[in-house]
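Subject: for your reference before the review

Hello V.,

The reviewers asked for a structural picture of the protein, and I figured it would be easier to keep everything in one thread rather than splitting it across files. Below is the amino acid sequence we used in the manuscript, unchanged from the supplementary table.
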Amino acid sequence: SVIRDHQLLLAIEHELDEPASQRQEEPLEKHQEMREETRRRLLQEHRDALHQMVNHLSQLSAAVNACGNRHGEFNFEVLEAALQTVADAEHTETRSASRILAEGVLAAFCSVRRFMQEVYFCLDTVDPTLCNNPGLVDLLDNLRKSWETGSRFLVDVRVRNAVDSLVDHLRVVRVSSPAFASMCESCDPEFFLVLPRLLMLTFLAAPEKHLELMRLLMPQRFPVIDASAKADRALEKLRKSFNRTQRILEKSGDAWETLVGVSMAEDKLGCSQLAGSQLKEFALELEKWSMELQRHCPQDWNQFSAIITHCIQE
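And here is what came back from the structure prediction:
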């Protein structure tokens, strides 16, 4: 079924790319209208064929996994989100985090399609026990991982925008801080201590913009499943402490730069006694939350930190 889906997609894509022949006996406006109608029809057929292929890939993955322990149900929303993200970013110079993630999803999907094209000419070489085909197993496993990433960070536009915002902030820090730039380049262990602190700072500086991402990473701090629900009291207390620290620091210099420096354990000798005391207190609070962010679900955090690291380095 997946091979047939791929062949159907190839036929539709060929027709989409092929310039329509103009009928001389028809007026130009009529011809243009017919071309647009044909293109709309083909695009809908292409979408339907993609949807069908994704469904069949889920069935194929289930058959492959029958003798393994992997999971692999593919939601069409992920592919749609990836295609839309790449299309939206087509004319932008910078590569946003969401674009990088979307390209990863599409690359994994295209790899499966290439495999189906190759297999089409040599079906007799495929082992009927599907899990005995290592090439297929590896491709589906890679697709599954990309799909999981897309499902978590691309489908919900609020999460997608929050990830983009976070990576943009981290890229700015990378440019302004040689120490952080060095950590990024070497993936120094210290980088993975600094990263969650910077994430918390970015959230505290603009909580509404990053709310859905934090809800995803720290669900235990958002006990009410409600789009309008705020964080729990402890996180609200941290936000107030951040605001108070920021106001005090603004009296003596660049508050954000100072906070970023503290997140990298830099000494800030130019602070007043009051600011220094408040800064020290906030740094201890920040570290506590940084550790919770990493430890609540280590597997999720490791996945997310790997994604963010990759996006920063692009």
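For the response letter, the relevant points are probably these. The chain is about 75% helix and 0% strand. The chain has two domains: 43-155, 162-313.

Happy to draft the paragraph if you're swamped.

O.
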